[in-house]
Write a structure and sequence with these properties.
2 domains; 2 helices; alpha+beta; about 130 residues
Length: about 130
C-alpha cells in the first residue's frame, strides 16, 4: 500500500500555462499495481469543449510520480455532462440583456401613451 499519498493536480489549456482548475489532496492511499480514479472538482463550472492537459504530481514518502496527460472535451461530451450537472454556474447575462430591452420597450410605450394623453388634455383645455 502507498500511504500518505499526496496529489497536486492542475488543468491547463493545451500548450498554455494558465491554471484553469487545481486540486490538492493529502493522506490518500492506494494499492500497488492498481488503477486510481482521481476526480477533479470543476468548481461548479460547466465543461467547455477544448483541448486540455492534466498536470499531476503525486508523492508518497520518497516516491514521486509526475504525469502530464493531454485530453480533449468534445462539444457532445460537454453538453452531455453539463445537461446532467447539478449546481452549475450559469451565464445569465443574456437574461439581463433581455430584461433591459423589455424595460426600455415598456418605457417607450408608456412615454408614447403619456404623450398622447397630454396632447388630448391640452386640446381639451384649449377648446
Amino acid at each position: 500500500m502507498f500511504g500518505q499519498l499526496n496529489i497536486n493536480a492542475t488543468v491547463t489549456k493545451r500548450g498554455q500555462t494558465e491554471v484553469l482548475h487545481k486540486l490538492k489532496r493529502k493522506n490518500l492511499s492506494m494499492a500497488p499495481a492498481s488503477t486510481f480514479n482521481y476526480q477533479m472538482d470543476w468548481n461548479h463550472e460547466a465543461f467547455k469543449p477544448g483541448k486540455y492537459t492534466l498536470h499531476l504530481k503525486a508523492t508518497s514518502g520518497t516516491k514521486h510520480w509526475n504525469f502530464d496527460e493531454p485530453f480533449t472535451i468534445t462539444a457532445t461530451q460537454a453538453k452531455r455532462v453539463n445537461d446532467k450537472g447539478v449546481n452549475l454556474k450559469r451565464d445569465w447575462s443574456w437574461l439581463w440583456i433581455l430584461l433591459l430591452i423589455l424595460l426600455i420597450l415598456l418605457l417607450l410605450i408608456a412615454m408614447y401613451y403619456y404623450g398622447k394623453y397630454r396632447a388630448r388634455k391640452d386640446a381639451e383645455k384649449n377648446n
